[in-house]
UniProtKB/TrEMBL annotation:
Transmembrane segments: none annotated. This is HAD family hydrolase. InterPro entries: HAD-like_sf (IPR036412), HAD-SF_hydro_IA (IPR006439), HAD_sf (IPR023214), Pyr-5-nucltdase (IPR010237). The keyword Ribonucleoprotein does not apply. It comes from Bradyrhizobium neotropicale.
Length: 229
């Protein structure tokens, strides 16, 4: 059994946004999830139950429901993103401990997300983390090809001149760490802390024992603080 990769060589720190930079139990994604269902229901003129099935089928098959709706039903990305990210961000609270831990990491800090820059900006503002990141690579920068598509990571690495063998990736979905690990990145899976209920699909919470997951944490701020020490 191979030992997990370490962080001593890392000079670029790459973070997913949703359910990674804020706790799973905030269930902010649940709001987005509901808005996606409404969009699918309205666009396709199907029942909420049928919309839910299609939404989750597209999510698994295409990486995001949006990609499925674009590919199969001609949806415009701008319309979709504007609708599904119109949510209440007030459940998010400032996290100065996380900000301090991120600030102490040596090198660049980047965000790689299947969401939009507007959504990133709103989330970071609520968390008090807006000044801690050097750049954001969102679904628009990815040409609307979501993680875990290999070309999305490759474009991200090229656009930001990231050497994957000197980078670490933090994610809440194990499947989104497969390609980063293959490329040489140190991978960290961020999981719920187990103290409060989270609204997630079972498959979304799988993978903590996967070979492509180097580390697992339920406390990102604490994990990063130990690294910076």
């Amino acid at each position: 059994m191979k030992s997990p990769r370490t962080f001593t060589h890392v000079d670029t720190w790459v973070f997913d946004l949703d359910n990674t930079l804020y706790p799973h139990h905030v269930n902010l994604w649940q709001q987005v999830d509901a808005r996606i269902g409404e969009f699918v229901c309205s666009w396709l003129n199907v029942t909420p139950e049928e919309a839910r099935k299609l939404q989750k089928d597209y999510y698994r098959r295409f990486g995001t429901t949006m990609r499925g709706m674009m590919t199969l039903h001609g949806v415009r990305a701008d319309d979709y993103l504007a609708y599904v990210h119109k949510i209440d961000h007030s459940p998010l609270e400032p996290n100065p401990a996380l900000g301090e831990a991120i600030a102490k990491l040596p090198g660049r800090k980047l965000i790689l997300t299947n969401g939009s820059v507007d959504h990133v900006d709103a989330v970071l503002a609520r968390l008090g983390l807006a000044t801690h990141f050097d750049a954001v690579f969102d679904i628009i920068a990815a040409g609307f090809e979501p993680k875990p598509a290999p070309q999305t990571y490759e474009k991200f690495l090229a656009d930001h001149a990231v050497d994957p063998t000197r980078a670490a990736m933090f994610e809440d979905l194990a499947r989104n760490l497969t390609v980063p690990h293959e490329l040489g990145m140190t991978t960290v899976l961020v999981v719920p802390d187990g103290t409060q209920e989270v609204v997630r699909e079972d498959w979304e919470l799988e993978g903590r024992d996967a070979a492509h997951v180097d580390h697992v944490t339920d406390d990102l701020a604490g994990f990063l603080a130990k690294l910076s020490r």
